[in-house]
Structure formats: structure tokens, C-alpha cells
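sry for the spam today, last one i promise. C-alpha cells for design, 444 residues
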């Protein structure tokens, strides 16, 4: 009776047809502007627009846009390291799990294949005339000494680097540098980890918009003022973005709500299976936290293949902010070659003290380059990644929901207000267009 009365009131309204368009238009517009907001969260990777010096808005370099995540890759990745990755274990532990003895053997084999050409390159660079005039038999003895010393030197060097990795590499800085150099990697990481949540926000927004549209239709029935159309469209735009993001991450901890269950959904027709009514519990928790086990697999794979890799660790060690400490440590091992009787007698006497000192520095530089070649080998990095994948996956699964949410939450939290305000602005514009295109012609 009440519903019939309301329907009759609606039908009798002079703008009935225009009012009926409010729910579907609100649903469509909400779906569209949430899609736009999510795209603007991640794209474009690089700034697109006109650069303006000292531009004061949104931290942008001018009039235009750059995705929030790539624009703030350094800050967001720092938050992820501080709040999540640092709780998974130490760099020393990860490096030990990569089995450094096997790495040393692989590096030794690769360097040993090119050792003689490496020695020739070093000597020709430092003292070409001396090296060309040394008898080949003496060169052969130097080559032999180097071949014999290399396995022990590399083994002790790699183990020493392993034991000192915490002092030689800042994991936070390593990951931040990687993300800032490759901002697309940061975007791809968030999309892989949170694609289901992003799709959920997008699609649920249409349903939320439809519900708000129905509410707005009845508001217009009670308050038949045209200004309410763009005004409430802006309000719904604000609320939709906020509600959709909130639903992904809240509640953080699971809450179990009892309810009477009398059917279940199936994948095949008739799609509904009836049951005897019984008491069940619904797990109410943010969508992202519900997927902790699934996300752990995805995120662990990204970490071991893109972030905490053997190549990245050694690259930071050799060329990063603490490279000077690495060079000092390498000296104590590599200079052992120069202390063998044949090499010491041949080179120190022939070159003189000053040139011999330059030779030592050249050896370090060339050795770093030669060592990094095998460390960039895809096969070696893949095998080391497989060693630590399970370690990362299991520890991500063991994180508390509050810690786990920080794998994705920083991307939204960084400029969440911007996304919400953007929803309000686009809602207002859409509401105004709706008013002009639908309501005003209906009045005429």
C-alpha cells in the first residue's frame, strides 16, 4: 500500500521521466569517475603536461598530471620497506639463504674463463711497454699463479661480503633507488598485488552509485529544486570513492557475524542450492586482508625477482653509497694475488712503488666489473630467487592483518583525499550536465 502510494506520487510528478534517469545516470557516472580516479592513481608513469617552474599544486612540476604512485615512488616504497619488508627478516638472513658458497663457485668459474685476458687488459692499461716486453714464460707463470689463487680468493671474498652485507648494503635505500629508477615496476607491483581490489572498487562503485541515485530521486521528490541534482551528485561522488576504498581495507581484523544460512551459490545452473536453515558465520573483513594467502604468493614472487635480488644487492654493494667500504674489504682479498713471489718480484720492481699503487686500484676496478658480469646472469638470479621465495611467502602469510595491509594501503593513502575530492568534482560536473541535458529539456 505504501509502495503503491509512493509510486503514484512519482508518476504524478511533472518531471517523472527525468527523475527516473537519476539512478542509472548516477550509477554510470560513478562507475566512470571511479575508473578515471583509479587510472589517475597509476598513470601516466611520466609527467604529461606543461612544465611550470615552482608549480604549487599536488607536488606536480606543472599543469598536467602524473600518476600518484609513480610520482611518489620513492616515498611509497620507503613506507613499504619500513612497515612491511623490514619485518620479514634481515638482508643478512636473505643473503645467507641464497647459499653464497654456490655463488662463489659460479663467479669463480665465469671469471676464471676470462682471467688471462683480464690480466692482459689490466697490465696493458697500466704499463703497456713492460707487459709487452715480459717473456711469455714469465707471463705464463703469472697466469698460473692467478688461476691457482682465484678459487680461494673468491670463496673467502664472497663469504666475507656475505657476513658484512648489513654494513655494506642499506636494504631500504636499495629498494627505494630501484623503484625511483624504474617507476613502472612500482606501478606493476601494485597492479599485480591489488588488481582484484582495484577491480572491486571500480565495479562496486556502480552499485553504490545506483543506491545513491535512488536516494537522490526521492530527495528530488521531497525537495523539487534543480540545484539538488548537481549538489547531491557531488556528494555521492565524494562518498562513493571513500566507501569503495574503505571497503577494501576495513575492517582490518576479521569480525564474524552470525546469520541464518539456507542456500549457497554454485557455478552451474541453477546457481542456487537450497539447504536446511542453519546458523553460519560471515567473515566481515577488508577484501585485501581476506586474500592474504593468495597475495603472499604474488608479492613474494615480485620481491625475489625484482627487489631483493642477487644482482640488486651486489650492485648496491659495489656502486651504492657504501661502495668505499666494499672496496676496502675487497682489497684485503684481491691483493693476495700481488703478494705471490712471482708477481711481487716481477711487477713491484719493474713498475716502482707509485705505479704499483695505481695498479692496485686498477685491479679493484676491473675486478668489480668482472665480478658483476656473472652476478647479472639470469640463470644465477633465478636460482637464487627460488632459494628465498618460500621464506618470503611464508613470512608474508604470517604478518598480522594490520602489517599486511601496508603492502597496498600506501598507494591509496598517499593521496586518498585527492581521489575523494576528484570524485566530488566529477560528480558535480556530471550532475550539472545531467541537469542541462535531461531536466531542462523536460521542462520545456
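last one done:
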Amino acid at each position: 500500500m505504501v509502495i503503491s502510494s509512493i509510486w503514484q506520487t512519482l508518476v504524478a510528478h511533472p518531471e517523472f521521466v527525468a527523475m527516473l534517469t537519476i539512478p542509472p545516470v548516477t550509477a554510470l557516472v560513478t562507475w566512470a569517475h571511479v575508473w578515471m580516479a583509479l587510472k589517475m592513481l597509476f598513470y601516466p608513469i611520466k609527467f604529461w603536461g606543461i612544465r611550470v617552474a615552482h608549480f604549487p599544486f599536488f607536488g606536480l612540476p606543472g599543469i598536467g598530471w602524473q600518476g600518484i604512485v609513480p610520482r611518489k615512488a620513492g616515498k611509497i616504497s620507503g613506507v613499504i620497506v619500513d612497515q612491511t619488508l623490514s619485518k620479514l627478516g634481515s638482508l643478512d638472513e636473505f643473503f645467507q639463504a641464497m647459499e653464497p658458497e654456490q655463488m662463489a663457485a659460479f663467479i669463480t668459474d665465469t671469471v676464471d674463463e676470462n682471467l688471462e685476458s683480464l690480466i692482459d687488459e689490466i697490465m696493458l692499461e697500466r704499463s703497456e711497454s713492460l707487459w709487452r716486453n715480459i717473456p711469455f714464460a714469465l707471463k705464463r707463470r703469472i697466469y698460473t699463479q692467478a688461476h691457482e689463487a682465484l678459487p680461494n680468493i673468491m670463496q673467502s671474498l664472497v663469504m666475507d661480503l656475505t657476513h658484512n652485507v648489513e654494513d655494506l648494503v642499506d636494504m631500504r635505500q636499495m629498494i627505494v633507488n630501484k623503484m625511483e629508477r624504474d617507476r613502472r615496476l612500482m606501478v606493476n607491483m601494485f597492479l599485480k598485488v591489488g588488481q582484484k581490489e582495484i577491480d572491486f572498487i571500480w565495479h562496486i562503485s556502480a552499485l553504490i552509485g545506483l543506491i545513491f541515485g535512488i536516494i537522490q530521486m526521492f530527495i528530488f521528490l521531497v525537495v523539487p529544486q534543480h540545484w539538488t541534482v548537481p549538489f547531491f551528485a557531488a556528494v555521492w561522488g565524494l562518498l562513493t570513492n571513500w566507501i569503495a576504498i574503505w571497503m577494501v581495507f576495513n575492517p582490518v581484523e576479521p569480525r564474524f557475524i552470525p546469520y541464518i544460512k539456507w542456500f549457497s551459490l554454485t557455478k552451474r545452473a541453477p546457481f542456487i542450492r537450497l539447504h536446511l536453515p542453519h546458523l553460519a558465520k560471515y567473515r566481515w573483513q577488508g577484501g585485501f586482508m581476506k586474500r592474504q594467502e593468495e597475495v603472499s604468493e604474488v608479492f613474494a614472487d615480485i620481491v625475489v625477482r625484482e627487489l631483493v635480488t642477487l644482482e640488486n644487492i651486489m650492485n648496491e654493494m659495489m656502486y651504492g653509497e657504501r661502495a668505499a667500504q666494499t672496496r676496502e674489504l675487497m682489497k684485503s682479498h684481491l691483493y693476495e694475488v700481488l703478494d705471490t713471489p712471482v708477481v711481487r718480484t716481477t711487477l713491484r720492481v719493474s713498475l716502482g712503488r707509485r705505479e704499483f699503487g695505481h695498479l692496485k686500484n686498477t685491479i679493484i676496478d676491473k675486478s668489480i666489473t668482472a665480478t658483476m658480469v656473472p652476478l647479472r646472469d639470469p640463470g644465477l638470479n633465478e636460482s637464487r630467487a627460488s632459494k628465498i621465495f618460500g621464506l618470503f611467502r611464508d613470512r608474508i602469510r604470517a604478518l598480522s592483518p594490520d602489517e599486511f595491509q601496508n603492502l597496498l594501503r600506501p598507494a591509496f593513502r598517499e593521496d586518498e583525499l585527492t581521489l575523494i575530492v576528484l570524485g566530488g568534482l566529477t560528480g558535480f560536473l556530471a550532475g550539472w550536465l545531467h541537469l542541462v541535458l535531461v531536466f531542462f529539456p523536460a521542462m520545456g
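The radius of gyration is 32 Å. ok im logging off now
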